[in-house]
Amino acid sequence: MTPTAPRPLGPPTGREERRGAGRPTLEEVAALAGVGRGTVSRVINGSPRVSERARAAVERAVAELGYVPNRAARTLVTSRTDAIALVVPEAEARLFSEPYFSDIISGVSAELADSDLQLLLVLVRNQRDRERLSAYLKAQRVDGVLLVAVHRDDPLPTVLEDLRIPSVLAGRRGDQEPLSYVAADNAGGARMAVRHLLRRGCERIATVTGPLDMEVAQARLGGYRAALEEAGREYRDELVEQADFTEQGGRAAMRALLERVPEVDAVFCASDVMAAGALQSLRAAGRRVPQDVALIGFDDSIVARHTDPAMTSVRQPIQEMGRTMVRLLLEEIAEPGRARRQVVLATELVVRESA
Amino acid sequence: MTPTAPRPLGPPTGREERRGAGRPTLEEVAALAGVGRGTVSRVINGSPRVSERARAAVERAVAELGYVPNRAARTLVTSRTDAIALVVPEAEARLFSEPYFSDIISGVSAELADSDLQLLLVLVRNQRDRERLSAYLKAQRVDGVLLVAVHRDDPLPTVLEDLRIPSVLAGRRGDQEPLSYVAADNAGGARMAVRHLLRRGCERIATVTGPLDMEVAQARLGGYRAALEEAGREYRDELVEQADFTEQGGRAAMRALLERVPEVDAVFCASDVMAAGALQSLRAAGRRVPQDVALIGFDDSIVARHTDPAMTSVRQPIQEMGRTMVRLLLEEIAEPGRARRQVVLATELVVRESA
DNA sequence: GTGGGCAATGGGAGCGCTCCCACCGACCTG
DNA sequence: CAGGTCGGTGGGAGCGCTCCCATTGCCCAC
Fold first, then answer.
1. Same domain? A146 vs A162
2. I want to staple B103 with a disulfide (CB 3.0 to 4.6 A). Which of A156, A353, B69, B318 is the partner?
3. Where are the beta strands (DSSP E) in chain A?
4. A270 & A221 share domain
């Protein structure tokens, strides 16, 4: 040690004059434990190069003083922020089946529970928000990003890619998604639903799709088609009607289908909300569900349990998706160079009364 | 200036050797603008004591370098964090009408949009989380707290009170709530609902309440009672059944009421979800809604629009509650000593088919 | 006994800001 | 013209950490 300050190195003096009502600092812990700052830091950060004796002394001092590291000071020097952002484009979020959002959050939060990372929630509602977010990300204020509800032409994932910020999407933009993502098996779920309708003996199975610029909508339509074709049925355009994931859209789509193909005897809707709309149009047209027309939705949302008749629907493990997203993100943060990863989680058909 | 370093004070040299790919710092901005660090800081923070000339030079330099202040460094010295936490006890959150959670978030986020504050989301699911949160708050890692869904005996508000952290509740614990809060006019909404039933000519109006250790449940029951009494009707215990805000609870409560008072001709439920359950029991008992029994819910949630018949319900301005909470919190942060404030927002009866 | 290696340790330097004090010059006053 | 006043300014100090280097003491081999 170079002799700079004439400070006697005697036994620990406890605390020196502590200013204000401030929280204890590393230095105070060190003084109380009778060791140097470096050693305390090593103990706090779990370094192995510390003697048992020193570790015990530090731990005692930490407990006694109720020491909690100052996050800002740490961030300043490490330039880690110990925070991740959950980014939700609001417009899309509203379309999602109702518990979706809270379930994602719930899963994310659960998985984050013992990681000491903060969860920042960022709602993006317009162009200005998008720009602010980009600036924000460029300023490196988070260690990673979870992005929910991606449209095919959303610029945000590209920004994340360019900035090389660890990030995980819920869902993907298309077949070739370079970023890590976690998605439900939408195609598989749709196929199960249509198989179920076929097994029931339905002959003319229609489908109401979501906006086809979204990969979810494409995938669900793909599953519908696959089920028909594997059963040797013909895929017919007149049985497909595009809507926008809203109830009103579902109503209009069903009306159009009834007009075009009056003899339709089953409908697979790409969301419960649209199915609820379809149900109204069916009832208005005097069709009984499921006797005249069988109906299946997607999401197994709260709406599905409250329609009359209760709706058969495809469930996706939303909470598990949230958890998995965090797991992937943490790995990516820990090992920045690693290859992007893709996870697809199984869906499940919940059979109720409507089909 | 004291002559310390032999550093020539010549014209601005632009940037010096910049290390790494780091973001520009205050110092670099100062150099480029040809002013001192202090002046740049003053400009960034909107101090009035800066000449026009200097301000312009700094702003140009900021734009050119794409400078964004380092939040950690700022926090370290000011001990402001520029972040607020939205705390949601998960168990309770799940009981809430479905869009509640997202609407609160949406309002909060909207109001926060141009304040440069970060929104931290904290879900609390058990005792361990509660303790972690307390430690977290003690470590002063947020400037303020928004707390949603408070139970009467929730210890969290007390912690907030003791720590004197600026905080605003959604709802209140009881009549005497010392903390700032924003609540819907639950009593008023309930009264409107029951008045509506009275106007319809209903004679025996029952109610299904929420857990009476929650102030919302108490308030809604209070409104029910007030409406009856102001109409000169008698408040009768046998017409009141307590449930737990769940669908199943609503079902059971309705069964009990039908058994006890078969001649019941109207029911006010303290939530839509419970009303949905009640509806099932009514149907099972062969009662027609609204002809035999009129039914009103509370929350105007998505469920209300999808029951058959569609449910008359009391709407609360949830998003507006979120916005107001932020507004109060910001005021409290800006002026720590100020008196706590209480805001009650009006509710509204949405008449549909069930009553 | 001497030298080398190694684990454990202390503490200086420095992260990028804000705060504050000292200083500068222009302007006003008597 | 000396002596204030005051808006504007520069930059040292310091916030609480981590990083890293130098130093220590110990053990083992030669």
1. yes
2. B318
3. 83-89, 118-124, 144-148, 167-170, 180-184, 205-209, 240-242, 266-269, 294-299, 312-315, 342-345, 348-350
4. yes
Query: How many structural domains are present in chain B?
Result: 3
Is residue B144 within 8 Å of residue B122, measured between CB atoms? no
With a CB cutoff of 8 Å and minimum separation 6, the contacts of A112 are A84, A119, A326
Report the CATH number at residue B301: 3.40.50.2300
| Residue A126 belongs to some domain of the structure | yes
A7 Cα to chain B: minimum distance (Å): 25
- Please list every residue in chain B whose beta carbon sits closer than 8 Å to the beta carbon of residue A302: 98, 302-303
* The dihedral sign for the CA sequence A204, A209, A212, A217: negative
Which chain B residue has the Cα nearest residue A79?
B72
**According to the model, what pLDDT value does residue A93 have?**
60
- Global pTM? 0.87
Closest Cα to residue A122, out of A89, A165, A159?
A89
Q: Is the CB of A46 under 7 A from strand D?
A: no
Residues B251 and B280 in one domain: yes
Name the nucleotide with the smallest C1'–CA separation from B77: D15
Do B227 and B143 lie in one domain? The reply is no
Determine, for residues B101 and A106 on separate chains, whether the beta-carbon distance falls below 8 Å: no
User: Between chains, do A302 and B302 touch, taking CB under 8 Å as contact?
Assistant: yes
Residue that terminates a domain, selected from A46, A69, A92:
A69
User: Which of B303, B268, B95 has the alpha carbon at shortest distance from A308?
Assistant: B303
Q: Does residue B157 sit in the same domain as residue B250?
A: no
Q: Do A121 and B109 count as a contact with CB atoms less than 8 A apart? A: yes
Note whether B346 and B332 are within 8 A (CB): no
Find the CB nearest B129 among A70, A113, A121: A113
Would the CB atoms of B105 and A122 count as touching at under 8 Å? no
Please state whether strand D lies within 7 Å of residue A41 at its CB atom. Answer: yes
- For residue B100, list chain A residues with Cβ-Cβ distance below 8 A: none
* Residue B351 maps to a domain: no
Specify whether A168 is located in the same domain as A87: yes
Q: Which domain holds residue A220?
A: 186-315
How do the pLDDT tens digits run along chain A, 355 residues long?
Answer: 333 333 333 333 333 333 334 689 999 999 999 999 999 999 999 988 899 999 999 999 999 999 999 999 999 999 999 999 999 987 766 655 567 888 899 899 999 988 889 999 999 988 888 888 988 888 888 999 999 877 777 888 998 998 889 999 999 988 888 999 999 999 999 999 999 999 999 999 999 999 998 899 999 999 999 999 999 999 999 999 999 988 899 999 999 999 999 999 999 999 998 999 999 999 999 999 999 999 999 999 878 888 888 999 999 999 999 999 999 999 999 988 788 899 999 999 999 999 9
- The whole-angstrom separation of Cα A44 and Cα A341 is 32
